[in-house]
Amino acid sequence: MVELRWNPVLREWIVVTHGRQRRPVLPEAHCPFCPGSPEVPPGDWEVMVLPNRFPSLMPDPPPPEVEGDEFYRTRPARGVCEVVLYTPEHDSSLGRLGVSHIRRLVDLWAERYRDLGGRDYVKYVFIFENKGREIGVTLDHPHGQIYTFPFIPPVIRRELRSAKRFSEREGGCLFCRVVERERRDESRVVWESGGFVCFLPFFARWPFGVHLYPKRHVQSLLDLDGGERTGLAEALKATVTGFDSLFGFSFPYIMAFHQAPTDGRSYQHYHFHVEFYPPYRERDKIKFFAGVEQGTGTVTYDYRPEEKAEELRRAFASGARA
User: Fold this and answer.
1) Which domains does the chain have, with CATH numbers?
2) Is 143 a catalytic residue?
3) In a 3-state reduction of DSSP, which class is residue 210?
């Protein structure tokens, strides 16, 4: 069963996916994403997209099993769920791939954003990666995912509202102003190239939760030119390699691409960026969103972002030398 249920209190859709618990969890004998697996088409490949065999949303979903009404609304869970394989190598990772390889991945992400976003029922294309068992991944093979939604998700909707309000009141782009302030201050900038900047925001939520921004104002992957796509590949490699150098082990994280919705409207006030949510706050301690965060939505940050940014700068420099 998959269906959407409306939360009238928070005014957001919940995706109900009864049955996904049957998906494989860390199988020892067989990796479904390795070459030779029945799930992977034969032939040579470097990056690949596969349909998710245990999707939360479907192009042709069944009708909701529970009949809704005006208060408790339901909708079919219409969308697409895909798996993006980063490499045939089971023991690799995004950070271990070369920049040219990651560039091919960027091109694939852009292609899927364009193709999936062109479907009339897709309002938002979400590209993301869950890395590490601490995050709850069920397969270790290097991969990310793409979910398309028939609505604009709540976090993106809040960003869009804030960006539009800023544009109307102040003029310009809210996100460009954030980038400008972070680059001017410098204390939280972790890595910078010609086209991209990586920083731990003034308003950081996760101890090492960096953001990656293109310096040029663009709304999506499709707006990046060839040099900027390569720049994004370099920025992603620098970030993930830096994470791995931080404590000397493969660093878990969530990577989330934030880009313009695909509902046919103009979002010139929005700014494409990538956010990372790594759970570790120290080498042997994990940051949990517990009572205050979950109960109120208010994040408590136990450090100064400036000191955590300094740790990251040292780690990124070490990773670049490795």
Assistant:
1) 20-53+79-321 (3.30.428.10)
2) yes
3) coil
